[in-house]
Amino acid sequence: MPNNAEHFSRKTPRITLFNHKGGVGKTTLTVNLAFALGEMGKRVLLVDSDPQCNLTSYLVDPEVVDIWLDDSESADGKTIWSALSPLVDAGRDIRNVLPFERADNVFLMPGDIRLSQYELALQQSWIDCYQRKIRGFLETTALSRLVDVCSAAVNADFVLYDVGPNIGPLNRAILLDCDYFIVPGACDYFSTRALKTLGHSVAGWVKDWDVISQLAPSDVPLLNGRPTYLGYVLQRFRMYGGVIASKYQEYARELGKRSYSEVAKVLKEIDEDLAPGTLSQFKLGQIKDFSSIANSAQQKGIPMSQVDDGAQYLRGEADEAFRTFAQTVISRIEKIT
Q1: Of the four listed, 280, 288, 290, 306, which is most buried by Cβ atoms within 10 Å?
Q2: How many domains, the chain?
């Protein structure tokens, strides 16, 4: 188990694309970002931390996923739950489960529907941390410590968590473990409205963990507790004449303003370093509606840029959009650090 100094000195950035409003394309965006980074020579560890296992189902044949889920509590289990269950069920330490290479430079830690049991345990773990109970810290940091092992095993340059659309205990632990988070937003009313709850939730978690960290006994594992807001990525819109169609433009403007006022500004009130930058700097990219090739990509378990059916120009546009997005994420992190 790493001590606190070692835990915070990690060099591999951990990122999650987080929006508790469902239907904004988090998993598809995460997969395509990972492949874009991989094609740039960056080694990426994908962590499927959503109990729905959408990321795993995207990248792995259904028959294999079913076998993994059926065997996850066996001695040969291969999912995240296989690693966490000894701690959650029996109070023992986590078991190391190594990731699978799904493409050049892209590695997967398979998800599991039983992560919902871990989430239930985290409700009490949070209370135990306030009471300075060591088990609370061990459970709260269990996934983080597993990622430590897996990230080192594949020599990852980036870790990308895929999370579910909620603000529950599991996402709280993941956000607090991350170095950075990105908000994916669709061009619709509910995506823009969701940002207020999102920003205040993350700010509350940061403040609570700061208290817990000060109460913590010496030599217990801790989470990073400092998720920096990188920015947002605009999605689910159509283009007309080379620009965003007029019916989506107001939502696009509103998402940009709320990204700053409801997320960045709220975090800046805690610490300027949690949201460095001005309003214009928080737009990381825009991914138009590629639904005509997105479904094919999901069925084949590949990024949109590799789909061999549909219009060729769409594949080229998708490749350029995600490569630009990946490059922006890298440069933003380099600028912040």
Answers
A1: 290
A2: 1
Q: How far apart (Å, rounded) are the C-alpha atoms in residues 141 and 125?
A: 10
Note the pLDDT of residue 252: 86
Cα dist from 22 to 122, 231, 285, whole Å? 22, 18, 20
Q: Say whether 235 sits in a helix, a strand or coil.
A: strand
- Dump pLDDT digits (tens) for 298-326: 989 999 999 887 667 888 999 999 999 99
3-state secondary structure of 274: helix
* Domain of residue 251, CATH code: 3.40.50.300
Cα torsion 5, 6, 8, 13 to 10°: value is: 170
Give the pLDDT of residue 24: 63
pLDDT of residue 271: 97
| Sign (positive or negative) of CA dihedral 184, 188, 189, 190 | negative
Residues 182 and 272: their CA atoms lie apart, in Å, by: 17
Closest of 54, 129, 44, 123 to residue 88, by C-alpha: 123
Q: Angle at Cα 147 formed by Cα 302 and Cα 124, nearest 5°?
A: 115
Considering the entire predicted model, what is its pTM?
0.94
Cα–Cα dist 194/185, whole Å: 9
Sign of the C-alpha dihedral computed for residues 142, 169, 159 and 70 taken in this order: positive
Residue in this structure with the two tokens 């001695």, named with its chain if needed: 75
Residue with tokens 């997969």: 31
* Alpha-helical segments (H) within the chain: 4-8, 26-39, 54-59, 62-70, 80-90, 115-130, 134-140, 142-154, 169-177, 189-215, 246-258, 265-268, 291-300, 312-336
Residue 170 structural domain? 4-336
237 pLDDT band, cuts 50/70/90, is confident
C-alpha of 265 from chain center: 21
